Structure formats: C-alpha cells, structure tokens
Amino acid sequence: MTPLRTLLVVLTLALLGAVAPVAPLPAASAAVCATDPATPKRQLRAMWISSVANIDWPSRTGLTVAAQQAEFRAWLDLAVSRRMNAVVVQVRPTADAFWPSPHEPWSQWLTGTQGRDPGYDPLGFMVAEAHARNLELHAWFNPYRVANHDDVSALVTSHPARRNPSWRFAYGGKLYYNPGLPAVRAFIQDAVMDAVTRYDLDGVHLDDYFYPYPVSGQTIPDSAAYDQYGGGFANVHDWRRENVNLLIRELDQRIHQAKPHVSFGVSPFGIWRNAATDPLGSATSGLQSYDAIYADTRRWVKEGWIDYVAPQIYWHIGHTAADYAVLTAWWAQTVRGTGVQLVIGQAAYRAGASGQDAAWQEPAELSDHLHVNRRHPEVSGDIFFSAKDVKANRINAFATLAAAHYTRPALLPARGGATAPAAPALGSATRGSGGVTVTWTPGQGQPTAYAVYRVDGTPTTADPCAFADARNLLATTRKTTFTDATASATAAYTYYVTALGRTHQESGPSAGRSVPGSGGGAFSVVLDNAGAGFTAGSAWGTSTYSSQLHGTDYRFAEPVAASDPAWFRAAIPSAGSYRVEVWYPANAGYNSATPYVVAASGGSRTVTVDQRTGGGAWRSLGAFTLDAGTYNVVGVSRWTSAAGYVIADAVRITKL
C-alpha cells in the first residue's frame, strides 16, 4: 500500500531567541512558526489495557500481589518507552470491580474467583503508578455487560444481577443489565461515580458495548420494560436509543459536577450510519451502531455530552466497506466546531496477525493511518488496541509507526478553558557524569506537571518558535528536577521549563539556563544547494515549486539503481563528533526512502529519510564522528527503490 502523507504549508519563521537567564516569554503562535507535523506539540497517545478474559492484565488469574503489580508497572514502562502519555485501563469489565466497590463484587479476572479480595487496591495502585510516570489514567468501564456466559448461578451470590433478577436478561449466550430500566441506569452511574469520587482519575472511558450486538435469530427480551417505560416513543428502537442517550447525558453531568477536570470519553464502533441509510452518514456499507446497538454517537458529539470520542476505526486504508481514510474524514467533520476532541481507536491487534487482510501484512499500514490523520487538524491523537499488541510489535509495525510519528514526546491536548499556571523559576542547569540536571521551583497556579525543553547553543534571546512544536521537548514530569541523560558531554545547551495545569494548559517558558560547551563546540555551518560547496550531476533538476525550500531553490532527481549523489562539501575544523541535519521541502509525491550518505570517520553511513513529510525544518540525521579537512561530507543518493523525486536542498553540520 502506498503510504499517505500530507504537506504542511510553511509559514513565516520569526527569528527571536534565548539567553540564560532571560525574562519568560509567551509561547509562540503556530501561525508564525514553521512546525514539523512529525513532532506535534500536543497529541494524545494511549493504549488500552484490557482486563476482561485476562487479555492484557493481569496475564492470568491468581497471580500474587507482587506479580500483578510488576506486570502493570511493565505495561506503564512500555507506554513511556513508546512516548505515550496516557493509558486506558479496564476497571469494570463484567459488572465487577478492580477496586473495593460498595456496589459490585471484586472482579474474577484478578483472583479467578468473583468477589475474592485480591489483597490490595488495584485501582489506587494503578493511578499512583501512572501519575508517577506522568501518564494520564483513564478508567474504562463496560456499562451493561454482566457476564460472558448466561449462567446466573455462576455469579457470586451477592452479585446485584442475582439479587435483582428483573434487572438482567440473557441474549446471545451472555448476561446483560437491561438498559431500559431507570434503576439499572442509576445503579451503573453510581458504580462509576464511586470510582470517580474516590480516586484521582484523569478520565472516565466507555467502550462500544451498549445494547448487545445483534445475534441472528434472536430478539432482545425487553418487551416488558418497553411496555412499562416506552410511552411516548413511536417504536422500541427510538426508546432504546434514548435509554443509552440518558446514560451518557446523565453520567456526563454527574462526572463534571463531582470533578470538572475529569474527561469523559466514549470509544464507539467506527460507523455511526451509512450514507445510503442516512445522508448524514459516512460513505461506508458496514454495521450501523445507531441502528444495531442503539448508540447515537453523532448526537453525543453534537450535544457536547462527551469530552472526547475515540471511534474504533479498525479497518485498513482502502477497505471496500469501511475505508479508514473515509471514516477518519467523516469523524473529523462530525466533531468540527463542537469542542469535542477526536482520537482514533487503532487496530494494533490486526497488524501482522495471521488471518488478517493483506493490507495488515504491510509494516507501514498502521503508520499510514497517522499520516492520514495529519490531513485533519481535528484529530487529537490515537489509542491502540491493545497493550499486548503494542508490545508484540509484529512485522515491526508499531516500531515503524513510532519512528515516523513518536520521535519526540508530546503534551496532552488541553481540555476546557482553565487558566495556565505561572511559569516556574528555573534555578540551575548543571552538567554532571549522568548528563545535565535541571532544577526549578513552581510558580503560582498549582501546576500538575512540567515540560522540559532544550535548545542547542546559548542564544541571546528566547525564540518563541522553539516551543511551537515538540522538536525541542525533552520530557514531561511531575517532579521539580530532571536529568537530561541524552546531553552531549561537550555541547552547549540552553534549558527551559513550562508548567502544566491539570487539564494541560501550558505556561510560558521559564527564563533559560545554559550550560557551556567545550572542545570547539561553537562550530556550525549551513550548506545550501546554491552554494559553492554543492555539486550534482546533470540528472539533477532545479525547482522553486515548494514554499518549504531553503534559500532560493532546491534540486531534485528521479530514483535510479545507481548512486549519482548530490554532494555537500564542507571544511571540518577538527576531528570529533558532529550533528548532521538536513532541510528539504516535503511533498506527497517525493521519495519515502531518500538515502543520505554521511562520510563518517571509519566509513560512510547511510540514513534514509521520508521526504513526503516533515519538510521546511531542520531534521537530524544523528551524530557522526567526522575527520578534519575539506571534503564531501553529506551526499543525497538516487539509489532507492521507493518512488518519487529525491530532494537535495540544505545541510547543517554542528560540532558537539
């Protein structure tokens, strides 16, 4: 499958800059800074950690407390290693609880026996561990499912579904609470609200299970409830939809009345309705959640009853009945102007799995979904199902995605209109054997977390554009100290810290603190294709087509099975470690695997760059040991099997 990319139009770059210390400045507006779509400033990145049937965690029932906790910490560490910033953890999978609920029994998925105390408070533990890593924890509740079987006697005797037989029904071999009963609706809300009020949750998350998915030849046994409560509705279908609407609307009200900062989100089936059924629907031909499971998700968005919607768009790009690109565009249009955030539910479980369509055997399929997302500014991030598939990384699919989209950390999207806390006061930046340690003190406004930025060198003034995307973002933390273990032992840097409120509004940056370099680290040179140090063969054309160019023009050539490189020649003052960066305009028609050749000491090294995205900005190829002298240091080769022009525009070489 051909990966899809978007072209970000580069706007005017304001050249301001930052000395240590300097007065704090407001963050730059994206309208005056060239931002890199590969390093967005804000993006929700999460994975579902599923407990039902021990899909993810715990891996099996009956583990010791220590083993359960070690497994959960490992899931959080995986999220951090993949530069995620949230987890969505299933805490009420089958009308049971992963906390000492006064309403429902302990979950069987903890100990193997429903109602048995696991010996600790899993939800309290999970929240504390997630926040220690500055991950948001969204507690995931399945509202109506009682059991994945229909044997009532298998439920613990104290189970509310046993004590209240009228609340339940069996359908398709499973037990459900009846959504049409006001008492059931109130009970479900009370069960959820117990967790909301007792724990420091960041979000409440419902999945796609509302009324049961249809089972051929069976009818939902709710006629008695319809007779009792369905007055005023033209048919049972409208009544069922309103029952679910009431749950969503009332739960939204109760959550935000108790804790306004808690986010309420739903992850529905990916299709609301098909356009053939409803002109407001999507150009798809699959199951319609509005009609099949009575989930009017479009209305929930338009009414603002939820803070975010995470549709499960579990189909590949080009799928005949439900094209990922088509559905993403439909959901983007649906949330536009509503204030409801859109995050996409991604089918990590399909990537590289046996029995899946051929598209899912392509390592880039999952990554290409996020390239589609870049077309739509309404898309605020992604959630991956599920944690074990993120870890499995079959066919290197998730690593491919992370390399293209998660190379830097990202702040979570801001929610609501709260005022940002004041900027912190940066006290010191000290180089030690483990890196550079930065310390600060909070400003006013009760910050929840902090973002740490690093820019190269010791600029004389703070550049607002340094904070416009995440290219300079090192980490977020809830502590007031951070050690930059990635810092070179010889390079000069300037550090800044911002403060983040509970709903992620960000302060302006602190005054900067610099650490000096050593060993000639001040050397830096920019080589443009129009300069004297550039050489290229006759096959290389010249263009001014893209506004993302560096200088007056750039060079392009067709790929061939021969190197024929365009070379950038430089005078390297002394042997040592140098950072090599490249600048190119990006376009969907350019090459996805352009080979850059660096004439490093000990032998040339080749780095491939996707020139379909991330243009109009300096992109690092990495640090290389270079010999002293004047020679061709960086080449752009034509030898690639990928289609599209290879581009040679500019190179920057900086001594570390």
UniProtKB/TrEMBL annotation:
<protein>
    <submittedName>
        <fullName>Family 10 glycosylhydrolase</fullName>
    </submittedName>
</protein>
<feature type="domain" description="Glycosyl hydrolase-like 10">
    <location>
        <begin position="43"/>
        <end position="361"/>
    </location>
</feature>
<dbReference type="Pfam" id="PF25275">
    <property type="entry name" value="Golvesin_C"/>
</dbReference>
<feature type="signal peptide">
    <location>
        <begin position="1"/>
        <end position="30"/>
    </location>
</feature>
<dbReference type="InterPro" id="IPR013783">
    <property type="entry name" value="Ig-like_fold"/>
</dbReference>
<feature type="domain" description="Golvesin/Xly CBD-like">
    <location>
        <begin position="525"/>
        <end position="655"/>
    </location>
</feature>
<dbReference type="Pfam" id="PF02638">
    <property type="entry name" value="GHL10"/>
</dbReference>
<dbReference type="InterPro" id="IPR033803">
    <property type="entry name" value="CBD-like_Golvesin-Xly"/>
</dbReference>
<dbReference type="InterPro" id="IPR052177">
    <property type="entry name" value="Divisome_Glycosyl_Hydrolase"/>
</dbReference>
<dbReference type="InterPro" id="IPR003790">
    <property type="entry name" value="GHL10"/>
</dbReference>
<dbReference type="InterPro" id="IPR017853">
    <property type="entry name" value="GH"/>
</dbReference>
<keyword id="KW-0732">Signal</keyword>
